[in-house]
Structure formats: structure tokens, C-alpha cells
Design goal:
By secondary structure, the protein is of the alpha+beta class. The chain is built from 27 helices and 28 strands. Strand 12 (about 375-380) and strand 13 (about 385) form a beta hairpin.
């Protein structure tokens, strides 16, 4: 009997194993069948002439077509082959439609985004598009859908989710640009809100001290002068020692984390979600004119700093199609955004350009004056008016639909309530038809700087510092994107627009845009800090510019180069010297005096490690990590008492988001005014020593000794596929072997080599227009979004190591020809 039971059990186990194996084989086959076809010919509907797609050893396509519309079709085709799920997330992220394919985990994200009604706005943009723009978008859309239909199975993510992909529509390309708006500007109004709370709570002198517009030590504008930190307010303005004791608060507590939602959205609002990590989207770009390069051609360098996922946000490509002149050809190489038909940054042989987020002021919070008798009625310059009411329906996978009510004013949607309960509307460039267009397509055929600057001003996109060089060796800077014309106010604080004295009066014309052309020293640099001063700065608005330390270090690196090369540009991009932290290293050493370290082994060891820190954001440096943490601790402790009234009014208050705390904090620790010292400390020396001890308390030294608590242990790559890390973590670890947990050089703050575990340089390029063969490029990950593709991560190692690789695609390895469908 026992023998028969054992035999039956063995048969059952064998059958289960066979069934499991069969299921696994079926799953693998479905998984593999969604890989794209790379060679041969495919007949497609919607093109007029054959399109040739040549891919090199890294999977980078060169797309050859006979006109720009067919080229758009080919671009849509390669995007659809390699990146459709990424594109789907991008459009859904902006439209607030993620829950439709993912479910309740992202429902709150969808609710938050629906207030912007971006799908409705995208339809308006399409309706207003020119016939040529619409033709290109239609061709791109047809290409995407043709590629999706030609795959042997839908992209593997849909197999895991159990949903069917929805075909692409022209307005979805607009939604992808709205996703960029959300990432680059979506949280800016919260910083304006922070200033509003400061204004309403603290004396004016303290507001100006805590939120300066710059610092003399670190400001490095290309045009104009540094700003100085206002003087420390005296005790008649504020005296913390005379104030009653108050509950402890933190000045740098981040806003409510949305990390679980962030995993699903390809373009999260890093201002909100990465506050704890000290990272927000930015970028570096600069140009060197032909008089200061080894070959006489102007150079452009660019590394755009964004969240890094799998696949990478950018998709490399080269476009070729005939020019109007007989025998001539347009050629452009660079990066595209999957979901859109244009090269975003790159070189066309005549001009090369790069972007950094401008950090200007492109949105304003409007304090609404509400009728007490009717909360839907607000005051306008033309009298009382009722808010518009729209119902947004969110579809939820495996659940019921949910309705979101959106109230809107003549200026924009009602976005929130402030610390007093006052309703506020948002006026934002992204909400206007002028805010989005296909203007970058027009950049592809421009052959001189003057026309490039004019075209940049006509582009509808999140406003960017636009750095451009031409093949005659000239360089220039301006803003790409639309600039609002403010009337009656500077946009720094939330205000009421009810009486009409504060308003936007359309947008600036291209001739009114600030420009820098042919600078005397032959260099232009941008790094999210202030670029200009005076009247030009007023046109851009107050914004929330980064501290100028990164820009200053780049400027100094460039000025030290007499004759620069492409490799020199890469070296500046990889500069991880901690120049900004040098004075903080000295302060920490001054704090760890012989008396302080006596009979305190951990402090003594800390001092030794800080003395030998190496002065770089190097993975093997413990001292760098200690100095960096010390600065953050001191900042928190020095400001906590000053901003405590703001935190008590609104727990979301976050002074650190303004990113200008360095100036006032250094003034405090240098001058050490007793009346601004938190009463919990007897002296500034005590605050500094407590901050040093707080750094030591961050580590579990029972597990890892202090001497091994390197910067690399904290700054370790964590680059994941946004779906796999949540839905299939074990599978994710296996599929992400191409992007290992490397310990990374660089930092998220105040030096050129920006790097965090899942954010940083999303690409690096250095190129001279007309000399593209000498250019340099690399990016994290690879071209393909499919884990079984050899191009899922084949360019990643060069990005990690900072090794130069060619800007242009290499020798052709695969050729696919799209043929017009036969009648």
C-alpha cells in the first residue's frame, strides 16, 4: 500500500513538473515573440516610399526616408518596436490613466494628475496644430501602431499585467511632452507656496535672509553679477533665546513621499518624490567657441539629469532624408523621446544644441477671493464668476471607475488650499495651447545660430536653457519654450489676481527673449543656476534656481582649458571634486577638537577619516560621506528654530526645497549670533558637535565599522524596470543583471558629476557640428526595452565607467526595409 502511495505521489509530482515546465516554456515563447524583427522587409500601410532602418552593434537605428513624413513613420516604428510600454506609461502618467492598466496602487497618482486635464488639453493642442505638424504626428502614430501590430506578441509587460495595449493616437505624443512638464516643472508651485508661508509667518527681514536670490560665493551667472546674502537679522527682528520653548521640528523634512507611485510612472515629479534623496531634475550644458578648441570648431556638451529607469528615458537615433537642394541630404543625430517624432538634443552638421532645465518661473499660484455665500463663486477683474466644474472618470483595473471633480477658474484649475484654508488656482504655461507644439522638428534643418534662437523661442516645451553652436565656431544661449509676460508683479509669491493688477499678458515674442551671443571669453555654461541678471532675469522670473556651485565649478573647469577637445568636455562632465564641501570639511575638523575627541574613539576615527577624505565624491571615500552628512545635519539644526512657526502652521513646509539654504546657514555658523541659536543648545559649538554625533548615529557600526562606511555604500546604483520591481521582484533581479548595483562616483549636489542611485546623467554628449565623427556619447541602459534583447543594457558599462564611446552610430549590423503596401 505504501509503495502504491509513493508511486502515485511521484506521478503527481512529475505531472506538476511537466505542466509547470510547459507553462514556463509557453511563457518564455510569448516573452520572446515580442522581440522586434530587425532584418528583412515588411510591407506597411501609410508610407509613400521605402524606409530603411539600419541598426548598429548597440541597436542604434539610422532611419533613411524620402521625406520627413515617412521619416516620422519610421521613427514611430522603431519606438513602437523597442519602447512601446515606456511610451504607454508616459502618456498615461500625464493623462492620469495609469490605474487603468495597473490598478489601485497608482490611483492616488492618477487623482493628483487629473486636476490638469491633460488629455483634454492634448486634444486642444492637436486641433490647433498646423497641417504639417499634424501630418508628421499622424505619420508617427501610424508607424507606432504598425510596429505594435507586427510584433509576434504584445510587449512582455502586458503579458504580466494581463491587459491589452491600446493603439497610439496623435494626442498621445502631446501627452508625452506633458509628462516632461510634470517632471521638470510639476512641483514648482509648491516652492512658491513655501515662500508664501514664509512671507505670511516670519518678519520680512527673516524671509529675505532665509530665501536669498543668490550667494556671492557661489553665484556664477554668464551675464551680470552675483547676489549677496542679506545680513543676519538682529535680535529686534527675532530672538530665539527670548522665545518660549516649542516642540522640536525639522527644517528639511521632505514632503509626503510618493515612492510607491513613483515606481510606476516613467516621469515622476522628482521635486516631490526625491526630496529625501536630495535629487531633483536638472542638467549640465555648456559651449566653447572655435577659438578655444583644438580643431577650431565650436563644441557643445550636455548631460541631462533625470530619474533613471529601465529602459532609459532617451532613445538614440540618426535621421537622413533628402534636402530641397538637389543632391543634398539632411542628417541629424541625437536622442529622441519615445512617444515623439523629433530629435530632442543633438547635431545636424550645421548646429548642435543641448538643454538644461531653466528653473525660471513658469507657473503662478493665485489666491482666490471666494464668495462666503457660495464656495464656487470667485472674484475676477470683471466681477464675480462661478467656477467651471468638470468630471474626470478614472478607470481602475479590477475595480470600479472613480469620478474626480475638477474646478477651474479663468486662470487655471483650483489646485489646493494654503495654510489658512484659502483656495488657490494654478496659472501654468503647460495649461495653454502655446505650451506644447512640434517646434523641435523645425530645429532639425536649421543651419545657423540666429535662426536656431528664433526657432527655440517658438517651441512649445518645458522652458529650457538652450545652448547652441554652429559650424562656423560660434556659440549662443537663450531659452527654448514660451515665456509669459507678467504684468504688475514678479511672480515670486502667491497673490490675488482679482482686481486685474496682477496678470499674464500673453507671451513674449522671439525678439524679446534674453540672449547671449559670442561671449567675450568664448564660453557659455548652464547648470540650472541663474544665467543672466537685470532685465533679462526679470523676463525669466524669480524661479527657484539652483545654488551656483555646480555652474561655478564647470565655469572654472572650462576657463582652465586653453584649447578644448571632446575628451576634455567629458572630463568636465565627470568632475567629482568636492570643491563646494571643502569649507565644510574644515568646519568639521575644527569641531572635532582634541578635547572633543579625547576619550571618544568614534569621534577620533571620524576625524582621521575626514582628514583623509580625498576631496572627491569617490565611491571609496568615507570622509566625503561624513562631511556631506555633517552639512545636512548642521543645516537642519541651524534652521529648525527659525522656521518652526512655519512647520507648526503646515507640516508640509520644506525650506530645503528652495535650495538656497547654504548662504544663510554659512552666515549663521560663521557669525554664530546667539539670538538665532535654538534654545536647546547652549552654544553654536554644542550644535556643531551634536551634528557630528548625529552623523555617527546614522550608522549601525555593529554590522559595518565606520572605516567601511564608504560613499559607494550609499550611492549604489538601483536601476530597475518600473513594472518588474513591483510586480515580479525575483524576475526583476534576474532581468536587471545588465545594470548591476555598481557603486557610483558623483553626488546629487553641487558638483558636475551628478549621480544618485536611480537618478543622474540620463545621457552625456560632446559634439562639434560638422565633426560628429569625433563626438562622444553614452547613456545608462541600452536601446531596447526588452530584457531578452542584447540591446537592453549593452551601453551601460561605458556610462558607469565614464568611458568615451562614439556619438555616431557604428557599422550596420541589421537592416530592415519598410515597403509601401502593394495595392
Amino acid at each position: 500500500m505504501l509503495k502504491r502511495i509513493v508511486i502515485v505521489l511521484l506521478v503527481v509530482v512529475l505531472l506538476v513538473a511537466v505542466a509547470a515546465g510547459g507553462t514556463a516554456y509557453w511563457g518564455y515563447q510569448k516573452f520572446a515573440s515580442s522581440l522586434p524583427q530587425l532584418d528583412g522587409e515588411i510591407q506597411v500601410e501609410g508610407i509613400r516610399q521605402p524606409i530603411t532602418i539600419e541598426r548598429d552593434a548597440l541597436g542604434i537605428p539610422t532611419i533613411r526616408a524620402q521625406d520627413r513624413r515617412d521619416l516620422a513613420f519610421g521613427t514611430g516604428y522603431v519606438h513602437g518596436q523597442d519602447r512601446f510600454f515606456q511610451m504607454d506609461l508616459l502618456r498615461r502618467n500625464a493623462a492620469g490613466e495609469l490605474a487603468e492598466i495597473i490598478g489601485r496602487p497608482v490611483l492616488s497618482q492618477d487623482r493628483k494628475v487629473r486636476v490638469h486635464r491633460f488629455r483634454h488639453r492634448a486634444e486642444r493642442v492637436i486641433a490647433a496644430a498646423s497641417s504639417e505638424e499634424r501630418a508628421i504626428l499622424d505619420a508617427y502614430t501610424a508607424g507606432v501602431n504598425a510596429a505594435l501590430g507586427d510584433l509576434g506578441a504584445p510587449p512582455f509587460e502586458y503579458l504580466l499585467l494581463g491587459v491589452t495595449p491600446v493603439p497610439w493616437r496623435p494626442e498621445d505624443s502631446v501627452l508625452c511632452l506633458f509628462s516632461m512638464y510634470l517632471d521638470l516643472q510639476g512641483g514648482d508651485y509648491l516652492d512658491e507656496s513655501t515662500l508664501g508661508l514664509l512671507r505670511d509667518t516670519l518678519p520680512p527681514e527673516m524671509v529675505e535672509f532665509l530665501a536669498p536670490q543668490g550667494t556671492a560665493e557661489w553665484d556664477a551667472p554668464v551675464e551680470g553679477w552675483p547676489f549677496t546674502v542679506p545680513p543676519i537679522p538682529n535680535s529686534s527682528v527675532l530672538d530665539l533665546r527670548a522665545a518660549p520653548a516649542a516642540p522640536a521640528t525639522s527644517s528639511v523634512t521632505p514632503r509626503r513621499s510618493t515612492a510607491p507611485e513613483r515606481a510606476w510612472a516613467w516621469m515622476p515629479n522628482a521635486r516631490e518624490t526625491d526630496a529625501l534623496m536630495g535629487f531633483r531634475p536638472g542638467s549640465n550644458s555648456w559651449a566653447v567657441d572655435g577659438d578655444h578648441t583644438i580643431h577650431g570648431g565650436a563644441l557643445v556638451a550636455n548631460d541631462m539629469h533625470l530619474g533613471i529607469r529601465l529602459p532609459n528615458i532617451w532613445y538614440r537615433a540618426r535621421f537622413l532624408w533628402p534636402a530641397a537642394e538637389e543632391g543634398q541630404e539632411h542628417t541629424i543625430t541625437g536622442v529622441t523621446l519615445p512617444g515623439a517624432p523629433a530629435i530632442i538634443v543633438g547635431s545636424n552638421g550645421h548646429i548642435a544644441w543641448g538643454f538644461t532645465n531653466s528653473q525660471g518661473d513658469w507657473a503662478d499660484l493665485i489666491e482666490l477671493e471666494i464668495d462666503p455665500a457660495d464656495q464656487r463663486v470667485y472674484i475676477t477683474p470683471d466681477g464675480p464668476r462661478q467656477m467651471d466644474r468638470d468630471v474626470e472618470i478614472i478607470k481602475v483595473l479590477g475595480g470600479d471607475e472613480e469620478a474626480v471633480i475638477v474646478y477651474s477658474t479663468i486662470w487655471g484649475p483650483v489646485i489646493d488650499k494654503d495654510h489658512t484654508g484659502r483656495s488657490r488656482a494654478l496659472r501654468w504655461v503647460a495649461h495653454d495651447v502655446e505650451g506644447v507644439n512640434m517646434g523641435l522638428v523645425g530645429m532639425e534643418t536649421i543651419d545657423n545660430i540666429d535662426d536656431a534662437l528664433t526657432q527655440a523661442a517658438r517651441c512649445g516645451a518645458p522652458a529650457q536653457n538652450f545652448v547652441v553652436a554652429d559650424d562656423e565656431g560660434r556659440i549662443a544661449w537663450s531659452i527654448l519654450g514660451r515665456l509669459p509676460r507678467r504684468v504688475g508683479f514678479d511672480g515670486r509669491f502667491p497673490t490675488s489676481w482679482a482686481d486685474g493688477k496682477h496678470r499674464w499678458d500673453g507671451y513674449l515674442e522671439p525678439a524679446e527673449y534674453p540672449r547671449i551671443e559670442a561671449p567675450s571669453d568664448g564660453r557659455i555654461w548652464t547648470a540650472n543656476a541663474r544665467v543672466v541678471s537685470g532685465e533679462n532675469l526679470a523676463k525669466l522670473g524669480h524661479g527657484f534656481y539652483d545654488l551656483g556651485a555646480r555652474a561655478k565649478q564647470i565655469r572654472d573647469d572650462l576657463l582652465a582649458l586653453d584649447k578644448a577637445s571632446e575628451k576634455d568636455m567629458l572630463a568636465v562632465q565627470l568632475d567629482d571634486r568636492a570643491v563646494f564641501l571643502e569649507r565644510w570639511q574644515k568646519l568639521l575638523l575644527d569641531t572635532l577638537t582634541p578635547a572633543a575627541v579625547a576619550d571618544h574613539p568614534q569621534r577620533a576615527e571620524m576625524r582621521t577619516l575626514v582628514e583623509n577624505w580625498g576631496g572627491q565624491a569617490s565611491p571609496d571615500s568615507v570622509g566625503f560621506r561624513l562631511v556631506r552628512s555633517f552639512r545636512h545635519r548642521v543645516t537642519d539644526e541651524a534652521l529648525a528654530g527659525l522656521v518652526r512657526p512655519c512647520k507648526l502652521k503646515d507640516e508640509r513646509f520644506n525650506l530645503a526645497s528652495i535650495d538656497m539654504s547654504e548662504g544663510p546657514v554659512w552666515s549663521l555658523v560663521s557669525s554664530r549670533p546667539e539670538h538665532l541659536l535654538d534654545p536647546k543648545y547652549a552654544s553654536w559649538d554644542e550644535l556643531l558637535l551634536a551634528s557630528a554625533d548625529g552623523v555617527l548615529a546614522e550608522f549601525d557600526l555593529s554590522e559595518v565599522p565606520l572605516s567601511q562606511q564608504t560613499w559607494g555604500r550609499q550611492n549604489t546604483a538601483d536601476i530597475e524596470h518600473p513594472l518588474l520591481e513591483q510586480a515580479a521582484p525575483k524576475l526583476s533581479r534576474w532581468l536587471n543583471l545588465a545594470m548591476p548595483a555598481d557603486q557610483l562616483a558623483g553626488d546629487s549636489e553641487n558638483l558636475p558629476r551628478i549621480q544618485r542611485p536611480s537618478g543622474g546623467a540620463s545621457q552625456r554628449l560632446a559634439v562639434s557640428p560638422g565633426r560628429e565623427a569625433e563626438g562622444i556619447f553614452h547613456m545608462p541602459g541600452g536601446q531596447s526595452g526588452h530584457p531578452l534583447s542584447p540591446h537592453y543594457g549593452d551601453g551601460h558599462a561605458a556610462w558607469v565607467k565614464g568611458e568615451p564611446t562614439p556619438f555616431l552610430p557604428g557599422e550596420t549590423k541589421h537592416t530592415l526595409v519598410l515597403q509601401p503596401e502593394k495595392p
